[in-house]
Amino acid sequence: MPKHLTETIEVPVDNLEINGNIRIEDIVAPDMEILNSPRIPVASVVMTRQLKQEEAAAGKK
Questions:
Q1: Reduced to 3 states, what is the DSSP secondary structure of residue 29?
Q2: What is the CA angle 20-21-23, rounded to 5?
Q3: What pLDDT, in 10s, does the model give residues 22-42?
Q4: Nearest one of 18, 19, 24, 26 to 41, comparing CA atoms
């Protein structure tokens, strides 16, 4: 119902690790049905290029 629509849906991301994702299927939205494919990621944690380079350099030592 339109009366249940909100501008935002809050999703906790504090437990995400590097390469972790939150997908549509992980979102709990009471009184709403999200019509996108359940496998679509809405938040991802990725390693920056600089961090990858630093890890590679540390591994060579």
A1: coil
A2: 160
A3: 999 999 888 888 899 999 999
A4: 24
